[in-house]
TrEMBL record:
It is found in: Secreted. Residues 1-22 form the signal peptide. Ca(2+) 2 binds at T198, D249, D257. Residues 29-330 form the Plant heme peroxidase family profile domain. Its cofactor is heme b; Ca(2+). The keyword Heme applies. The record marks R66 as: Transition state stabilizer. Its main location: secreted. Binds 1 heme b (iron(II)-protoporphyrin IX) group per subunit. This is Peroxidase. The lineage of its organism: Eukaryota, Viridiplantae, Streptophyta, Embryophyta, Tracheophyta. Heme b binds at H197.
């Protein structure tokens, strides 16, 4: 009893730590004009390369948006996600949520090379991820916001935090909400940010359980529209086809709008984690209904929640470094 109580105390202290220290201490706040003097063309360079990549493949907007999320939930928004295996670093790219799934790393590399050419050793990989997420949202038709900047890059990665902190699609509502709260995010953030699933794809393996054996009794998930489920089964069989791709929002798969919430109301949310926002909690149900009815409210909350997510434990001041190559830490040569 005493043990589990002090364990909980430690947990709650840990969850408060980012609010008390990292964000406010160590050289102040992130702010949108951080690169105005040191690299005035930084934002337009990021935007032009993201635009080119999205023109080549519409899905890239979704993939880049997701990278910022998977970065921020692991050691904060510090580009730890971008590090490859090397020396003592174990890459996060092979964690359960990322393996065969996270993508867009080549686009980040291209942006970084262009920025190193324009203003060497100035713009962090963590800020590139935050800007690319915003630009991707705008290019897909979503809201815009000014991105607070000044993050620095980590000198390490955490495979275990990547496995543990990023919610899984079959986590319960409570587990997912707890993982958001541990990052300082609330229910409005959870529901609005889940609205990212208005664009992009998911693999069969991410929702198969719902189609065949939701609760271990051989029955499908009856909170999923059964004709939609039958359609999904044709390309997501009981076994095989793990990597087959499906639209997260089948109505408008590349357009950032509020159809994601309308789909959930029609029992056509693709992932279990999408549908439980309606079925397992009163407050989140109200928010799903609100955003389905009012795209403007969704867009406003999404922009606020993205800024909030982007503020998770940034490295600032003299902490961390500005990587020259987003895939590896700088070699110390002095
Ligand atoms: C609430 C908990 C969340 C869960 C359980 C979850 C889970 C998933 C899963 C399983 C996929 C499909 C991966 C695959 O099959 O390869 C996915 C895709 C995606 N997620 Fe989430 N996600 C969550 C929240 C978020 C948030 C907060 C964002 C962004 C702010 C986000 C953005 C995306 C995007 C854009 C895609 C499509 C990526 C692509 O097409 O490359 N998700 N998510
Ligand atoms: C969730 O999915 C994972 C991976 O497919 C599986 O190992 C686990 O048993 C599932 N959890 C639940 C609660 O169904
Ligand atoms: C469903 O899952 C349970 C436990 O995960 C397993 O024991 C059972 O054999 C599965 N049933 C079917 C029909 O796949």
């Amino acid at each position: 009893m005493a043990v589990s109580r002090s364990f909980l105390m430690v947990l709650s202290l840990l969850s408060l730590a980012p609010l008390c220290f990292s964000h406010k201490g160590n050289g102040g706040y992130l702010y949108p004009h951080f690169y105005d003097h040191s690299c005035s063309r930084a934002q337009e360079i990021v935007k032009s390369i993201v635009a080119k990549a999205v023109a080549r493949e519409a899905r890239m907007a979704a993939s880049l948006l997701r990278l910022h999320f998977h970065d921020c939930f692991v050691k904060g928004c510090d580009a730890s996600l971008l590090l490859d295996n090397r020396g003592s670093i174990i890459t996060e790219k092979l964690s359960n949520p990322n393996r065969n799934s996270a993508r867009g790393f080549e686009v980040i590399d291209e942006i970084k090379s262009a920025l190193e050419e324009e203003c060497p050793h100035t713009v962090s990989c963590a800020d590139i991820l935050a800007l690319a997420a915003r630009d991707s949202t705008v290019l897909a038709g979503g809201p815009s916001w000014e991105v607070p900047l000044g993050r620095r890059d980590s000198k390490g990665a955490s495979l275990s935090d990547s496995n543990n902190n990023i919610p899984a699609p079959n986590n319960t509502f409570q587990t997912i909400f707890t993982k958001f709260k541990l990052q300082g995010l609330d229910i409005a953030d959870l529901v609005a940010l889940s609205g990212s699933h208005t664009i992009g794809n998911a693999r069969c393996t991410s929702f198969r359980q719902r189609l065949y054996n939701q609760s271990g009794d051989g029955q499908p998930d009856y909170s999923l529209d059964q004709s939609y489920a039958a359609q999904l089964r044709t390309r997501c069989p009981r076994s095989g086809g793990d990597q087959n791709l499906f639209f997260l929002d089948f109505v408008s798969p590349t357009k950032f709008d509020n159809n994601y919430f309308k789909n959930i109301l029609a029992s056509k949310g693709l992932l279990n984690s999408d549908q439980v926002l309606l079925t397992k909690n009163k407050a989140s149900m109200e928010l799903v209904k609100k955003y389905a009815k009012n795209k403007k409210l969704f867009f406003e909350q999404f922009a606020m929640s993205m800024i909030k997510m982007g503020n998770i434990s940034p490295l600032m001041g003299l902490r961390g470094e500005i990587r020259k190559n987003c895939r590896r830490i700088n070699i110390n040569t002095n």
